[in-house]
Amino acid sequence: MELLSKLNSPFLYMVCGGIVLFVAVICVVFAVRAYRMGKAMGIDTGKMKRAVTASATFAVLPSVGILLGVIALSGSLGTPWPWLRLSVIGALHYETQVAEAASEAAGIGGLSIANMTPGAFATIALLMSFCIMWGMVLVIFNGKAYCSRLASPAPAKKKEGKKKKVDLSGFGDTAMTAMFIGLVSAYIASYIGNIISGNGTFSFSGSWLPLAVACVAALAMAVFIRIKEKTGAEWVDSFSVAGSMLIAMTAAIFLGRIAA
Fold it and tell me: For residues 20 and 84, is the Cβ–Cβ distance under 8 A?
């Protein structure tokens, strides 16, 4: 617990809080400039105020999932670091998965403050930052060209024989979906591998609890998707991740008591 007190030290709160405050100030500056630009363009003030209100309301539900991520990671990484990672450019699904993978690579067998060491925390923090920073690094080099393509239509290309044009417009979404399916499959396979004993017999003495909680979370997400499809309520999509996490965490508490 001594390490956890250091991870929650005032110095870390000051460093991480300073960065979060800087980003918050930048957001306010851009919001004010955008509002002024809207007035200069002649956009109705009432419409802009409604857009601001709707955006603020819509942002509340996704932030619940972010808060849950901070709470989930704070038990092993302290509060300041997860707060910083999930407040700037981090993503809930990314941070938790990378932190778990980094902890296993560091040899502590998962995110647990009981097994956490300063070296393991440094490895986890480094990977959480290094693996996600390339978006803002690459935009320095190709951001201007990308924005110019959005501002003006691309010039028509000459036809070269009967060569078919490859449409890559949906490749990004497909690649991200495939990546997360692969990650989820890897985690589930590891849980199943821990349940099955070395002699090939099936035993619940292993780590069956993560697998059961994963099934509960998947079922909850399926219910949210079904509700959205049936009712057409877009807010359900924003609440689905946070709702699934809450249901899965509740299930973990009850199933953990049953296992004990």
Answer: yes
Question: pLDDT tens digits for 239-252?
Answer: 777 788 788 888 88
> What is the SS3 assignment for 164?
coil
Neighbours of 246 (CB within 10 A): 16
Distances in Å between the alpha carbon of 149 and those of 138, 139, 167?
A: 16, 14, 16
Where residue 199 falls among pLDDT bands split at 50, 70, 90? very low
- Is residue 160 situated within a structural domain? no
Instruction: Please state the rounded mean pLDDT for residues 205-213.
Output: 72
pTM for the model stands at: 0.62
- For residue 25, the model assigns a pLDDT of 94
C-alpha span between 131 and 191 (Å, rounded): 25
Residues in the chain, total: 260
- 36 and 122 together in one domain: yes
**For residue 110, what are the domain limits?**
1-134
Residues 53 and 111 in one domain: yes
Share in percent of the chain as helix, strand, coil (round to 5): 75, 0, 25
- Same structural domain, 14 and 125: yes
